[in-house]
Design a protein that fits this description.
It is built from nine helices and 13 strands. With 359 residues, the chain is α/β, with parallel strands linked by helices. The radius of gyration is 21 Å and the shape is globular. The structure holds 4'-deoxy-4'-aminopyridoxal-5'-phosphate (PMP).
Length: 359
């Protein structure tokens, strides 16, 4: 029997996708070879790759003025590539420090150029976000950077700042394709695929083409978005296996109502868990209600001892990944697109029962 998977990433994938991979891993559609044995310069891969990018564009409504491709190095490599390309001499980059992931990005950028912290959630313990309307980018801003969903802290931007002519850059690693997004408001959106999109190994890049004019000169090959744009993401060997799996996940999303469908699922699933939390004095959400994440639900119990018991008893029931990140403790349930509604209901029931026994 499959376990119930609430891991924050790598995380649950649609079972249909795993089955499609199983059925095609040795012999891809009767071609007599596996997708992961085929050349990335060959027809079989390229046909799949083109379909994958087309599907990504369709789902998010990405215009022709944007490049879309995949890189290696995780989302973490982008913490460096973004400032290396765009935080040039005389410019300053505006960062919203909203928790672990945005803070790591800001810290890497600081080693490359001048960073202005436009918001810092430190005082609240990174449990809240600024009102986007209050954010004013610096005069000579190279870009304004934010993390759309803090996977560890469990907070998510519900709307985004209007930065005018200043490029807006967002890390959407953990909420991509969970809701419709107006891509045209962003200069760049990127993220690791290992949450809502597929297995680890690839990072998606969506970048408005005019950004390339702003980049630093003399970048080394891999660091240069210009080269990846020119080569359509195939400058070097791409993460073939991940991209194939992403293609299958995108098809699954299209079959399941697209982004409207994912949005409804996220609302329903997160609503089930938040309503258990809100209707109890036993469970507690540490984050500002207005910005709580639908993908990563962070919650606490009255004591660390009860939290440890919750984790071990849920594990015995086949529920995995409910331990909060080691940096913050507590509990966290990640409810990504592919997590079935039944598994969320099972968690809600387990929580209610746990409170009855221990509350
Ligand atoms: N940004 C966010 C929001 C994340 O959740 C993560 C990883 N969990 C990262 C960046 C780093 O991604 P990677 O491990 O792919 O480098």
């Amino acid at each position: 029997m499959r376990k119930k998977n609430y891991f924050a990433g790598p995380s649950v994938l649609p079972v249909e996708v795993l089955e499609q991979i199983r059925d095609n891993i040795v012999d891809y559609r009767g071609e007599g070879l596996s997708m992961i044995e085929a050349s990335h310069r060959g027809g079989m891969f390229e046909e799949m790759y083109d379909e994958c990018l087309a599907s990504f564009r369709r789902l998010l409504g990405i215009g022709d003025d944007y490049d879309v491709y995949f890189l290696g190095g995780g989302a973490t490599l982008q913490f460096t590539m973004i400032p290396l390309n765009f935080l040039t001499e005389g410019k300053v980059a505006d960062y919203c420090k909203t928790g672990s992931w945005a803070n790591k990005a800001a810290s890497d950028a600081q080693k490359i150029g001048k960073v202005n912290v436009i918001f810092d959630g430190k005082e609240s313990g990174y449990t809240t976000l600024p009102d986007p309307a209050t954010l004013r980018p610096s005069e000579n801003s190279a870009y304004l950077y934010l993390c759309a969903n803090e996977t560890i802290g469990g907070i998510e931007w519900k709307s985004f700042p209007d930065t005018g002519s200043v490029p807006l850059i967002a890390d959407m690693s953990s909420d991509i394709l969970s809701r419709p997004v107006d891509v045209s408001r962003f200069a760049m959106i990127y993220g690791g695929v290992q949450k809502n999109l597929g297995p680890a190994g690839a990072t998606f890049i969506i970048m408005r083409k005019d950004m390339l004019e702003r980049r630093r000169e003399n970048l080394t090959a891999y660091m240069d978005y210009g080269l990846h744009s020119k080569e359509k993401g195939l400058y070097n060997t791409p993460p073939v296996f991940s991209i194939w799996a992403v293609k299958l996940v995108l098809d699954w999303i299209e079959r399941n109502g697209g982004l409207q469908g994912m949005d409804r699922r996220a609302e329903e699933k997160s609503g089930l868990i938040y309503s258990v939390i809100d209707s109890s004095d036993f469970f507690r959400s540490p984050v500002d209600k207005a910005v709580r994440s639908r993908m990563n639900i962070v919650f606490r119990l009255p004591s660390e001892e009860l939290e440890a018991r919750f984790i071990s008893e849920s594990k015995a029931e086949g529920m995995l990944g409910l331990k909060g990140h080691r940096s913050v403790g507590g509990l966290r349930a990640s409810l990504y697109n592919a997590l079935p509604l039944e598994d969320v209901k099972a968690l809600a029931d387990f929580m209610v029962e746990f409170e009855r026994k221990n509350g």
